[in-house]
Amino acid sequence: MSSLIFGPITSRRFGQSLGIDLSPDTKQCNFDCLYCELKGAKTVIKSQKAPLVEEIVDALKEALQKHEHIDVITLTANGEPTLYPYLDTLVDEIIKIKKEHKLLILSNGATIHNPHIQKTLSKFDIVKLSLDCVSSHCFKRLDRPHKSICIEDIIEGMKEFRAHFEGDLVIEILVVAGLNDTEEEFKALHKILCEIQPNRIDVGTIDRPPAYDVQGVSIERLVELANLLENLDVCIAYKKNYIPQKRHFTHVEILDLLKRRPQSFEDIQLCFDEESLIFLKDLVDKKVLHVKNIAGVNFYKVR
Ligand code: SF4
């Protein structure tokens, strides 16, 4: 069997993370996304091969002894981690040993309408779910779900889950050129996201070789689309080698910008010139702005 535990990995959004792979030997997923980093594969709705809870817990205990300074334990998979058949038991066992470390799951959201999955996910500190588009046409073309899965159930499930989940809910949107990169799709996403009320939305694009022949969008387009998600806490994933154009903002322009959409520290550092950074600090000192940490990412927000 391949390794169950990987890391620690430093993530800009969650800090130092120790990962647990719930499908270490083969891809098992209920989606076959065009942008997947793994090779395309037939969708499944049940895990065919799964490591035992004891094996995972033993490997985790060992890793935690070796790596004390981690922030989160992340449940993930070569595929969809909620297909793991013993997820609820595993989560209970991890909670017994995790101490102050936060528990995070990265899921494609396909099973979130299932009450049993909602009950299990409500035990996590952070739940990150994908929602690339809300129109059925786009969803089927981009995420290529198993035939039993529909986007309407996923959206309803996300709303139900949010209503009782007290941890941080993060929604991830991955933008693919020619598919979900339209104003129309993002306006529809904005409406649904306002109803779901996640704590944070991560918007990114393809930056590793995809399973199928698709391409990402430019960072400039990503920013334009993120700006359509007004009044939501959006974190944009910049490519490591991205060199942005620094812009100048007055006090008033900074306030206007942050009223439309709170900006992450990373957004600000990349896009503000020296003087704008001084104005920003000024507004924080005068308590017009404040800093809020949302699931590991700091945002500037208007009070
Ligand atoms: S949900 Fe994740 S693992 Fe599954 S096909 Fe999509 S990108 Fe790949």
Structural write-up:
It is a single chain. It is built from ten helices and eleven strands. The chain is of the alpha/beta class and 303 residues long. The strands form two sheets. It has an eight-stranded mixed beta sheet with strand order 1-2-3-4-5-6-7-8, with helices on one face. Strand 2, helix 1 (53-66) and strand 3 form a beta-alpha-beta unit. The mean pLDDT is 94. Iron/sulfur cluster is lined by residues 29, 31-33, 36, 38, 79-80, 108.
Number of strands: 11
User: How many DSSP helices?
Assistant: 10
In which range does the helix fraction lie? Answer: 25-40%
* Order of secondary-structure elements: EEHEHEHEHHEHEHEHEHHEE
Alpha-beta classification? alpha/beta
Q: Identify the bound ligands.
A: iron/sulfur cluster
Poorly predicted sequence stretches spanning 5 or more consecutive residues: none
CATH topology of the largest domain: TIM Barrel
Kindly list the characteristics that best describe this protein.
single chain, Arc Repressor Mutant, subunit A, three-stranded antiparallel beta sheet, TIM Barrel, alpha/beta, eight-stranded mixed beta sheet, binds iron/sulfur cluster, 303 residues, 2 domains
Entry summary:
The chain contains ten helices and eleven strands.
Topology:
Blueprint: E1 5-11, E2 15-21, H1 53-66, E3 72-76, H2 87-97, E4 102-107, H3 115-121, E5 126-130, H4 136-142, H5 151-164, E6 168-175, H6 183-196, E7 200-205, H7 219-227, E8 234-236, H8 251-260, E9 263-264, H9 265-271, H10 274-285, E10 289-294, E11 297-302
Parallel strand pairs: 2-3, 3-4, 4-5, 5-6, 6-7, 7-8
Antiparallel strand pairs: 1-2, 9-11, 10-11
Helix pairs in contact: 1-2
The structure holds iron/sulfur cluster.
InterPro entries: Aldolase_TIM, Elp3/MiaA/NifB-like_rSAM, GTPase_Obg, rSAM, rSAM_sf
Organism: Sulfurospirillum barnesii (strain ATCC 700032 / DSM 10660 / SES-3)
Domain Radical SAM core: 12-239
